[in-house]
Every structure is written in C-alpha cells, then in structure tokens.
C-alpha cells in the first residue's frame, strides 16, 4: 500500500446485494475489502458503494445476518465497477414477504443490536441482563435479581418493549416489576435509541426494545439447542431446551418449541447473606410459521411464571424503622442461606398469544396484521399478621388485546413507506380478597392510533418523515383512603411527528440524525394510586389532573462498522420533556404505626442531555479491545435539581485474547479481562433519596470461553467481582436495606446445538 | 386459511369470559388496627383506662389519644387491647397477636429520668416477653409521654430486647403511638 499515491486509488465499486431467490435487496449487508478498513453497508434496497479503491486484486467479504457469508476475489481497474452479488438465504420461500418487509420495518433511528452469540448463550437470563452489553442502557434493580432496563435515563412505561410487534403489557409502571419477557423463542434483540413513537406508538419517550424471532428454520432435521447455566452467588442453575423443525412439505414453514427453568437461592454480599433474595422462573413457548405463496402466518404462544423473593429487611412499617435501617451497616435481618422464597415476595404469571400475518398484494405492496392477547397476573406477598402472609397483598389481572394493521409500499426505487392503524384495549381486575387497597384501580383503557411514515432514498442518503395521532381513554373506579369508590373517565389526544436522515460517507461512516416528538399519557397509577409502598414506608398518592408528557428528543449517531479494525457507535442526544411526571415528597402522614412519608405525583419540565459511545478495536487479529461509556445529565427544570434514578457516569473496558480465531469455523478459545467503573451520582434531589448516593466503585472480572467448530458447543466461564468488594449501587432501590450488592461470583454457561 | 378466523373467534370468547367480571367493591380492611385500649389496675383494685382511636384507619383523619391520669408511688397491673372498628362486627386484634406471640413484642418507652418503671408480665412459648400484659409503677408527680410500639418479627434474642430496650429489636413497626401520662 505504501507506494500507492492518492491519485491512483480512484476506482469505485458499486452494486447491489440481493436475495438469490426473489432478487429483493438485502438491507444492512456488509461489504468489506479484506485487509483494509474500506467497506460499506447496504441501504434498504441493498445498494452499496465503495469509493477510492486502489487498483489490483482485492478480496471482498459480503455478510448478512441471515445469510452465509461470501468471499469473492475481483480485479480492480480504473473507473467504476458494477458488481451485484446474490446471497442465499437459509430459507427461500419466506424471503418474498419477510425480507422485503424487514427492510421497511425499521425506522431510521439510531439502534443497536445484541450480539447473536452472546444472546444465544444467555437466553436463560433476563432481558435486562442481556441488554447490559448495549451502551446507553442501564438497569434499575430491586435487590440482586429483579431488574428493568433504563434507556437514556428513562424506564418503566417511558420505554416500550415489543415482542413480535406487540407491546409487552405487564405492570411496567412499578419500579420493582421486571419486564415479563422470555427470550427463548427469539433471536434478535435490538434497542432503538432514537425517537420511535411514530412506529411504535405512545410512551416510547426513551427508546424501544424490539424483540423478534429470526427466519424460521425449515430444515427436515430436528434442530435442538440446550442451554445450561450455573452460578455460585445466588447459587443455582438453569436449563432450557429449544427444538425446531420444518414441516414435511418443503419450505411451507416450521415450528419451534422452547422450555426452560431457573432456580436460585439467596445472594451473598461479601460479608453477609442477602436474606430472602432467591427466585425461580419457569417458561414455555411454542411458535409456528406457515408459508403459503403470498401469505405468511406466525402464531406464538408463550407463558412464564416468575417467583422472586424480596430482601427481608425491606419490610418496614414507619419512618422510624427506615431511620433505624439507615443507621446500620448491615441489613436489619440476616439469616442463614436458603433456597426458600418467603414473603415479601412476588409471583408473576404472564401468558401471551401473538399472531403475525403478512400478505403480498403485488410486487410493491404488503399488508401486515399483528394481533396479540396478553394476560398478566401479579401477586405480591408481605409479611402480615394473623396468618395472612399467604394471602397476596396485591393480586391483579391485567388483560391486554392489541391489533395493528400496516400497509407497506414501495413507490419506486426512491420512495417507500408504510401507514397503519393500531388499537389496544386493556383491563385491570383486582382480587377483592387481599384486604388491602389495590395499587392500581379497576379500569378499562382504550387506545387507538393512525400513523404514516415515508422514506426517500437518494445515493447514500435515506430520509424519513412520519406523523402519528393517538387517543387514550380511561374508565376507572378507584379507592380513596376512606374506602369510598370513585368513578372517573379521562381522555387524552396527542399528535406527533418525527424526521430522520441517514447518510453514509465514502469511508463507511454512517451519520444518523433523528429528531421527533414522543408523548405519554399519564399511567393509571400516576392518576389514581393510593397506598403504601412497603419498602419505603411511604404513601403514594395519585393525581387525577395530570396531563400528557411530551418529549422532544434529538439524537445524532455516528457509526463505523469495520470487521477488521476500528468499529464504533457514538450517540449524542438531547431530550426535553414537558410535564415530566414524578413523585414529590409532601410531608408525612401520621398513622397508628407512626409517621409515613407522603409522595404525590406531580409534573414539571425536565431536560436530559447525554452521550454514549461503544468502541471495538482489533489490535491484532487475536487481540480485541472493547470500550463502552455512558454519560447523562438530567435536571428537573422547576427544582433545578437532579431527577430520581438517573444512571451515573459509567465506563466499561474489556480485553479479549483469542486463540485460533479465523474466518473459518474452527474451534477456538477466548480469554478476557474486564473492568467496570461507575461514578457517584452527584446530581440528585435530597428529597428523592433517604441517604446520599453511594461512592464510585470499580469492578473487575475475568472470563474464558471455548467455541467448538461451527459453534456447536460453547462453554463460557465468568468470574465477576474478582476482589469480592462490597459496593452499593445507586440504581438499586433496596440499597438502603441491603447495604451491599452481591460479592464474587463464578458462573458457567453452556450451549449445545444438535441435529437429528 | 382456517387459522385466522379460529384465532380471532377463540380470543373473542376468551375476552368475553374474562372481561365479564365484577366491578370493585369496598375493601374489607381486616388488617387494620385503629383502636388501642390500655387498662391499668392499681394495688387497691382501682382501674384506669385510656383509649387511642384512629377513626378512618389509613385515611387522612388525625388519630385522637386520651391522657392517662394516675396517682404517684403506685404499682399497676396492666394489659393492652387492640381493635379494628373498620369491620363489622369490631374485630379483636389482641387475640391475633396472642396467637402469634412469638412474632410480636410490645415496647413501652418513657423519656429519660422518668419515674415510670415498666416490666413485662407475660411470655411466649419460648419464654420471651410479649407485652400484652405488663407491670407499671409510678414515681413522683410528672407529666410524661408513654411511647407504645408493637414490632412484628422482632429479634427477641438480640441484646437487651427482652428487658424492653427496642434499640436492637429490628422487625416491622405495626404500632407506634404516644399516650400522654400525668402522674399526680
């Protein structure tokens, strides 16, 4: 390369990566000139362009997530070379509908995907645990095992979780409620960090997590995967099985069956047992795909049961108890280790049925229908007097029906888009035998929305504009503290828009700029909740006069994908939220059990400003450095102080050394060492915290992994918190009671793939 | 094509079945303690009684506490009784506590330098104090505040807890009230 001058490297390679079967373009295929950092990603029509190529013989590597990779040698002269490459999909029949649909489906907004191998290895784990690999994502935890994702400082109902296009509807408003998502049937988990409210509907102010299955396996052999897991802290293990097979009629579809069980006992902090933090999870799912000419049907049935124990020390009755707990350096109750799950605890059963359908009207139009029904039953148990500990203190059934119809169209090579309608009905029913005021009232909720998104393609540019209108109606019957029932109706209407542009420059840098509005009508608990939060000895009082939150989020993402050298994604964003809903302390209420803090839902304008970067640098073919960091500044514009539960600055660095790594699928070993730093949160409102945010901490970990040929067997051993340090996590709601997070832990994961 | 209609039909039936549920009714507030009575009998057999009453339980109305007037230099045999008046008929919570006596302990706290002296007069099956029955003696004339605390799941074996010191007791506070006491 040395001797070549800049002038001589003027050739351009351009062309289209398409599906061999139906010649539809493949979006996001990567084309790399091996041995250089030159390359390109295809746009949504499968077009790519690589400029400034030096003459000579070069080797191109073409990869796409659903296809076998292709390596091709070509000779480059002067001028423009047209090179179209066909990739073969694993499943042919399906592409007609699915691939084309896929290219249109995603909004043009910064997004990041979980690495498939990592996901495959951690499918027994929770969604939140799996999302940790993505920058800009944190977790809000309630003790060592209940966690929910935070995207760009927002969590709960401010982010959307979509499974096969349907929003997961559980009691997402509660901070101590982990999302009811099981990953066993799914292969793609993507975090859309930009504004995605147009496509995914109200509430997705912070971002959206999109969970999808891959193209169905239609092979005539039974394809199975066994996942095993074990760990020494929160001692226990997990096992799950996935089975898939194609129908006997060739290429007519296939089925997939999955089931898993996880069971673990109390976690250990370095100096004591975190008593009553065990749990269990049992899940099962079935997915069936039918392919017929122009039709595509997919039916998914899933159910999962989760039982989690909550730290014993969290059960407090008054401000005095809380103050006592804060004075200690250990939890108030420490008992010998057990696998048992005793009150306080929660049991959640989530069952869903999802139906996806698409029909190709003609070469340019696809109609898609997505319907789902979800039933979420949540029971919470407290330590209660008079033998009532076995009677749930909270017992509610949330039933949600969703229906969406979307039309995808391609007007020409330059224009495509979609428009659609969405409908949702939700009902909450409380068990009357709890002898406690329900956290969430009895209600019916109806949502409807209409949206349109159009994309324009021009050379290396994709531009997108979209608009959406939504209404939300609530009909509720809620309790006052004097046991009176009040009937109320609420209506909200919101309109939003967004605009995005993506540009890829000559050297493969991708710039995505996305700006748009998001909105969120108040949640039912924010309007009407009226009751005690046991673990904070506080009363939470709803506010029926709340208005919708409106957010204007602007995000700029710069991305470079280079499989040989440096890859990075950097996001910088600003989110200005009008009418941000939060809990404000309003003195205390005197009860027979002493003083309890009173919190009232209120609104103020808030501002979020942040950046996250993740970088991958291949130092030598065997040595990989990965770095990830998150920064977020969030302020309540009224109080000029911080907002609750905003992730502090964090940085993660890992070094991986591979033996025997190559493009071919030989077996190989990895060794890695990682370091994680979390700063102290300095911006907070004293009224939001019972004790100041904990000090910064450093965590070190080690890992090793064996991959057999073709990834048939993967073994992964990981040592977390090597030095067994005691630290407290600001984002753990139980930090006041647990005093320390989990200590050292050794965990083993195994994946075994078989065919018969 | 049989799939779509059957799915839609079955989900509609399921919905109708589940949605045809009853509307909410007032909660049966069985768990509440909203009336507390303190009965004292002095050495001459004369009895004294005070009441602490929170009319609406968890509601916003402030609770009302009577003042206890007792003579100085006297010994009293006492018991405490707890009620829930929000259910009909009024529930006696005292028996609930007695049944789970190992999981409960009352603490009777006075200010430093007070002439009031307290001791337990009952035991659970582990021979640990409960505090449903207790003894009190008065010193000289004073105006005092008696802080009555009921802890659920305390560690009765922790240091000084059995002698009535709450410092190391832990557990969850079920009752934390103050009764003004005037010793004449």
Our count of helices of chain A gives: 7
Largest sheet of chain B: 7 strands, antiparallel
Q: Would you count the extended β strands of chain A for me?
A: 42
Task: Provide a count of the helices of chain B.
Answer: 2
The total count of strands of chain B amounts to 11
Structural class of chain A: mainly beta
Using only C-alpha atoms, the radius of gyration of chain B works out to 24 Å
Mean pLDDT of chain B: 86
Mean pLDDT of chain A: 86
Biggest sheet record of chain A: 22 strands, antiparallel, barrel
Strand/helix succession of chain B: HEEEEEEHEEEEE
**Strand residue content of chain A:** over 45%
Distance between the termini of chain A: 49 Å
Largest interface: A-B, 54 and 50 residues
Shape of chain A: globular
The end-to-end span of chain B amounts to 91 Å
Helix content of chain B: 10-25%
Helix residue percentage of chain A = under 10%
Short description, anyone?
The complex is a heterodimer of chains A (756) and B (184). With 756 residues, chain A is mostly beta strands. Helix content of chain A is 6%, strand content 55%.
3D architecture notes:
The complex is a heterodimer of chains A (756) and B (184). Helix content of chain A is 6%, strand content 55%. Chain A is globular. Mean pLDDT of chain A is 86; it is low at 1-7 and 90-104. Chain A starts with 10 loop residues before the first strand and ends with a strand. Chain B has 184 residues and is mainly beta. Chain B has two helices and eleven strands. The model of chain B has no long low-confidence stretch (mean pLDDT 86). Chains A and B meet through helix 5, strand 24, strand 25, strand 26 and strand 27 of A and helix 1, helix 2 and strand 11 of B.
Which tags fit this structure?
heterodimer; A: 756 residues; mainly beta; 22-stranded antiparallel beta barrel; 55% strand; disordered N terminus; B: 184 residues; four-stranded mixed β-sheet
